[in-house]
Structure formats: structure tokens, C-alpha cells
Amino acid sequence: MALEALDQPKSPAASPAAGSGCASGSCGSSADKLAHLPEHIRAKVHNHPCFSEEAHHHYARMHVAVAPACNIQCHYCNRKYDCSNESRPGVVSELLTPEQAVAKTLAVAAEIPQMTVLGIAGPGDPLANPERTLATFRALSEKAPDIKLCVSTNGLALPALVDEICEHNIDHVTITINCVDPEIGAKIYPWIFWNNRRIKGVKAAKILIEQQQQGLQMLCDRGVLVKVNSVLIPGVNDAHLPEVSRVVKAKGAFLHNVMPLIAEPEHGTFYGLMGQRGPSHDELQTLQDACAGDMAMMRHCRQCRADAVGMLGEDRGAEFSNEKVAAMDIDYAAAMARRAEVHAAIEANRSAQQQQRPDQPSETFVPITALLDGRKQRQPGSTTAAAPAARFAVASTGGGVINQHFGHAREFLVYEAASVDQDVDVRFLGTRKVDLYCAGGDTCGEAEDALADTIRTLAGVTGVLCSKIGIEPWDRLEAAGLVPNGEHAMEPIEDAVAALYRELLAAGRLTAPPAATALSA
Ligand code: CLF
Ligand code: SF4
After folding, report:
1. Same domain, 298 and 362
2. Do 373 and 285 share a structural domain?
3. Pairing of strands 115-120, 60-63
4. Taking all residues of the chain, what is their mean pLDDT, rounded to a whole number?
5. d(CA 192, CA 206)
6. Are residues 264 and 378 in the same domain?
7. Is the pLDDT of residue 4 over 80?
8. Is the pTM of this model over 0.90?
9. Distance between CA 338 and CA 351 in Å, rounded?
10. Quick one: pLDDT band at residue 353, thresholds 50, 70, 90?
11. One domain, residues 164 and 264
12. 194 alpha carbon, distance to own chain's centre
């Protein structure tokens, strides 16, 4: 899993219009982006950075790597590294005991008060290590009741553990479901370990799928919010994933997260060694849109490490090694009070941002519960007017505002703007990772290759919004046909994207739709 530190934005929220600063997220404002959800669900997702796209601008999560073993083998995994269920492979985790995990969680909660969720996602399968996983959750539910608990699993052991999951107040569960067809499953999973036996092929996949579906149904019946992760493997399950979406939605899954396969020979995975490719940006987005139909899709996943700490997209794990945590003296009662203050300030910011846009009641993703009420998502590139859609890359460290220097960005958030019924509709599409262009000091601006790579990564994007940008990269972006913009610093992202879109439209610079091949997030 992955991360980032929250640089608290000095947003317009500090104004008296910031409202009551409802920390519970239940103020009932019609401008609240989650207002369409039932209250009990809104309370669960409001500050969960994975289950709410809007929340990921404001809140952080952390993982503790307490689960080394796994009960299945996936062709995209090498367990010397992190679990590819929810992790970017390639970096070995520091394995923790439950006691170390609890100490680390309390330390992070004190140091990063905007951390709201503790997840267990590896490096193996958390439910294949039930004692270690549940001991961690049990201790944390007692010592840190203000932290949400979250677990990610391949689902094989899930039905047997559903009752214990519910006992420990784990409100959010992710199941990685790559298929509902055993024939396809046999191409992804060479074996499972089941009832003390290793089982292979289609038979193994059939058992795994049955367990996943049963576990999903049991959790949904008990009111637990379930996100389904699927790894998009071109040529293996790409045509099949819309069916997966349909099936899991019918069972009551809250959100579907289609993630790209990461397969490189150096990872030592079967797919990596066999040359199985991952999807392009275009293929991923096309598949996400195909799965969306009337289903909620997660598009802001960072495929983070099993020991991730911080905001999505930033890694602060090194600050919380076992050695460093052992040297910390944490007063958790004081930390909880501080956390409550910080959360109230964040909610004041969010409330103010929403009040500035009372005509925008919905999240950029639309949860299933809302879609069942008849809400629809605009399809990418679609517009009811003659004006074309355009894509914008945004540099932000969090807070939902444009607050990052172009040269400091390690990733860009990609949004699409389109004219719809005389208004501008802004939609989040995904993220694109880049190498750091400016390392500060004398080296700033010398990273020619990094800038060239960034420009290539931003293919299909029309404008680049950041808080500041140097003359050199400005010229290079312009020469590449991009429109750099630093005029909307500290403004809410969607407002700034809409403003630049309008400006370019009025200037006649959006007369032709971008080429279809360029339209990828
Ligand atoms: Fe962790 Fe996963 Fe919980 Fe989030 S991550 S266990 S739901 S708290 Fe989030 Fe990371 Fe994507 Fe996972 S961005 S990989 S979806
Ligand atoms: Fe690896 Fe996770 Fe698959 Fe187990 S479930 S083999 S840890 S990717």
C-alpha cells in the first residue's frame, strides 16, 4: 500500500463561511458531497481515504505488515515482496509482531493526526494469519477507538472469519476478486492451500471463487462495507471484469477498484518472467468505464505497500521504523484530543469548499447505493454541448486544493472537464506517477530526462495546474502543446479545473477533441 504526508492547506475554509466544522460529517448540508448516502454509510466512508475519493484529499491511512503467510498463489505475486493485492511490489516490508504493530499505529496516530484508518493488507494474506491479524485489531479497537479498522484479503479464509471480523468492529473489508469463472481463475491462480492440501488448476480456482462470493455475501448481509479489488490482466481477465462487477454489485459490494497489473521481470513473478504485460492508461480507463455502467468505481487507488504510512501517494514509512517507534513516548489520550482538533479543522475546510459550490452535491465517484437511487455517471468524453472534453493534470499534496510546485510533484491527479448543459462538469479520472523534476537546491531544473518523461506521461492532457512552476519547465510544457498554469494556487481543484477549462474554451483553444488515443488517465 502507498502514502503521503498531509500538508494542511491554508484554504479559504479559514473564513467565517467555513461553517460549524462538523467533525462527524453528519451536518446534513445539502452541499455535502456525501449527502446522498444514508447516514450510517456516510459516517463510515466520510473520512476513509480509500472508500471516499473526496476524503483522500484530506485523510491518511496506514498499514501494519503483520501477516507474512498466504494460502494461495497468484501469478502476479512474489511473496519475497509485498502483497500485490494492494501493494506495489519491489520493496521488502519490515514484518511486525502485533505488539509492534500496535505501538507503531499509536505513534503514527499521534504524529499524523489526519490518519484515520489502520489497514492490514499483507505482506501475505491477513486472514491466512488470523491470530496475528485479529490480535492487532483487538488491541487497537481497545486502545485507539477513534481509528477505523480495515482489512484486505484474497477471500479464501473469509467465510470462516466473518463473525470475528464483525466482533472487532472492522467496518471496511476489501476482497480481491479477479474472476468469477474458474477457467479464467486457473490462469491466474496456480494453486490454493485448502483443508491442509494443495489444490491446483480449475478445481482450486472454483473453491477460491466460491469462498470469495460467500464471504462477500456474508459481510454485506451484516452491513460491513466491502470494496472489491480486481487486477486487470490484459488477455486474461480484461473481457471478463465487467461480469465480475455485475456479480459483486448484485451481492452488495460498495465499490469496485480495478487496478492495473504490475509485472516486471525483476519482480520475479510468473507473469513478470513470462512477459505478461500490464494495461496501458487507456486500457485501464476503458475497462473502469465499462465496469462502471451503473456501478461505483474507485479511481484514486495508489496500489500502496503493505507497510504504507500517510496520505495516498506519499510514503512516510521510514519515519516509523521499529527502532524509531520504540524510542517514542506516546501519550495517546493527549494525541486523541489533538486528533479531534485536527479532524474538526479538516471538516471546516471541507465544509467551506462545499459551500462555495452548492450546486455540486455529488462525489466524483458514485457509490452503488446512490446509483440504485437512479443517479448516473457521465461517461468520459461525453458532453451535451458542442465543446469538447479536456483533461487537466493537477499538482496537490492534499486538502483538495492546488498547493504543490510543479517540480515537487511525484504524481499528478488527472481530471476531465466538459461543458454540460451550460455548466462545466469536472470528473476525477485517476493518477499518473512521475519522477521528481526538482530535488531542490542547485540541482533544480537539471533533471532533463525526468521532465521529458513527465511530458510523455502527461500525454493527452491539455492543461497542467500547480501552485508554481519555473520558467524552464513552463517553456518545455508549452513547446509540448500543454498549457501550464500557476494562477489558481490554493483554490479548490475542481473549481480551478473548471476555470481553466472555461478560459481555454473562451479563447478558442479547445475547438477539437483530443485524439482518442491520447485520452487516458
Ligand atoms: Fe488499506 Fe486497502 Fe483499507 Fe485502504 S489501501 S486495506 S482499503 S486502508 Fe486504498 Fe492503497 Fe488502493 Fe488499497 S489506495 S491499495 S485501495
Ligand atoms: Fe501474493 Fe496476496 Fe496473491 Fe497471496 S493473495 S499470492 S500474498 S498477491
Report:
1. no
2. no
3. parallel
4. 82
5. 10
6. no
7. no
8. no
9. 20
10. confident
11. yes
12. 31
User: CA distances (Å), 126 to each of 92, 111, 148, 256, in order?
Assistant: 17, 26, 16, 20
Residue 106 lies inside a defined structural domain of this protein:
yes
Provide the domain limits for residue 498: 356-506
- Residue type for position 134: L
Spell out a b/e string for 320-344, using b for 16 or more CB atoms within 10 Å of the CB, else e: beeeebeeeebebeebbeebeebbe
Residue position matching grid coordinates 516490508: 93
Element (H, E) at 42: helix 39-45
Residue 322 lies inside a defined structural domain of this protein: no
97 within domain boundaries: yes
pLDDT class of 448 with cuts at 50, 70, 90: low
27 and 95 inside one domain:
yes
Structure confidence at residue 231 (pLDDT): 96
- Considering the domain architecture, whether residues 394 and 252 belong to the same structural domain is answered as no
In a domain, 272, yes or no: yes
- One domain, residues 296 and 382: no
Pocket lining for ligand 2, CB < 6 angstroms = 70, 72-74, 77, 79, 83-85, 122, 124-125, 154
Q: Please, which pLDDT band fits residue 279 given cuts at 50, 70 and 90?
A: very high
408, pLDDT greater than 50: yes
Q: How many helices (H) and strands (E) does the chain have?
A: 15, 15
Ligand nearest to the CA of 48: 1
CA distance 316 to 312: 10
Ligand 1 centre distance from Cα of residue 50 (Å): 6
CA of 304 to the centre of ligand 1 (A): 7
Q: Is 174 in the pocket of ligand 1 (CB under 6 A)?
A: yes
Look at the chain and report how many structural domains it folds into: 2
DSSP annotation of 15 reads S
CA separation for the pair 256, 367 (Å, rounded): 9
Residue 433's CATH number: 3.30.420.130
Instruction: For residue range 87-130, list pLDDT tens digits in order.
Output: 443 344 578 999 999 999 999 999 999 999 999 998 899 999 99
14 Cα to the center of ligand 1, angstroms: 30
Least confident of 274-283, 288-297, 299-308, 476-485: 288-297
Q: What residues have CB less than 8 Å from 370, skipping those under 6 apart?
A: 36, 37, 296, 362
